[in-house]
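My current task is to audit a protein record that another person submitted. My question to you is simply how this chain folds and whether the tokens agree. This is what I was given:
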Amino acid sequence: MTDIEIAQNASYKPIKDIADQIHIPKEYLLYYGKNKAKIDLKLLKDIDSNKDGKLIIVTAITPTPAGEGKTTTLIGVADALRILGENAVIAMREPSLGPCFGIKGGACGGGYAQVIPMEDINLHFTGDFHAITSAHNLLSAMIDNHIYQGNELGIDINSITWKRVLDMNDRALRNIVIGLGGKTGGVPRESGFEITTASEIMALFCLATDFEDLQKKLANIVIGKNKEGNPVTAKDLHADGAMAALLKDAINPNLVQSLEGTPAFVHGGPFANIAHGCNSLIATKLSLKLSDWTITEGGFGSDLGCEKFFDIKCRLGGLSPHAAILVCTIKAIKIHGGVAICDIKEENQEAIKIGFDNVIKHVENIRSFGIEPIVALNKFPTDTPAEEELFMNLCKEHKFKAAISDVWAKGGEGAIEIAKILKEIKAGEFKYSYDTNDTIENKIRTLCQTIYGAKDISLSLDAKKSIKEIESWGMDKLPICVAKTQYSLSDNPKLLNRPKDFIVQIRNVKLSGGAGFIVVYAGNIMTMPGLPKIPAANNISINKGQITGLF
């Protein structure tokens, strides 16, 4: 059966029963039908004295078109811990409509390791993304209205960095001209659209500690500069209050379940190749207070979502992770070993030996934070016994803790060995990869050399100018968030495996004052994806009231 057919044939527990498993009183449940609920944010304050459970981050090697199965593994491991009698909870991101209808498909796991209701979560869910889109575009509208009504703040229209957003892949909207249509149409200027998951509101929404903190973060959003070169904020435009009002319900975390009945918080969803790529801090903290094990994820590889989880989310949220799981596949390793995607089903032990360098680098990255990873080989039907044996021998040779994951076919039972290893791991001495008090340039260089393996960085004139501006505003002592390709440890998607002696090209730097970090644009990363030649949307339909082809 396909993933969606498995999900549609699943047996659900009432969401109240899922809440009961982790001792959430019924008065905190805000029902969205039988199978979904939001949790009143007041609960987090009321259980603040609870001891935190252990926090596990699931990451992956450098992604390839063959797929790695990070979310599937996350869900399967949480299910496995519960089979072993542990109180484990899932904390993951909400899917974006862009990938759902684009190239990746849904993001609720796969096979017998999924969160459900899969169709709802992948599509409109509880409306969080729509609320974030609306809050973002309200600020966009207020900026242009302010300029049209006389521009009292003296905004330099050529400095405006705040665009509009849409939760859909649409390359035609990357660069647009607005304000056309004559005198009543507004002030003409160049602008564009980004995907909702790239919005600073999505990023700060997922880093807020409570509703009051969310409001403060919204107020601190920098939309551009005035004619004197000083930053103009959402607070200056008196937009922060109305934006917060639009997010009043969205800020409450969403509770659903896995196919095996494991409680799952699915809340927020920034992209890891553009933003920090982690679910909401609120949902993570709530899970830590309600369980002994919180299994979460960072988007893409250890160089993106995992690094940002450590350096941004854990730093800003005061979190201390216990261990990590690094997801690998034989198919992806062979691609890193030089095999064409059309040939990855053929046994090729030499390519595995070569491509294993990518695994080694990601293990080194995780260990550089003082965290010990478990290497999880996500099993596929095309893997041969000889390839699996070689992979496990390579892990043993390099002294990696490793196990085979078969959660797609077996659910939680397919991750029992991983769960047992996880229970034995002792927490290390967690540390960050750079000091926020260092200069912006040094922070970028340290990250690129330590985590990506770069020889050095090259700053464009625009990047140097932006860095000087941020320093003059006194906002340079913040974490950095590098936006770069997910398909390589470098900023060049064509450099696979473990590239060496490369220079990371820093195209520009931007202050995200609301989110509390500095965005660094490396290479040719885009913040509005396009659809592929044959988008996933081509295969999605409804048959007799049921969605088909979603994944």
Observations:
- The chain has 19 helices and 24 strands.
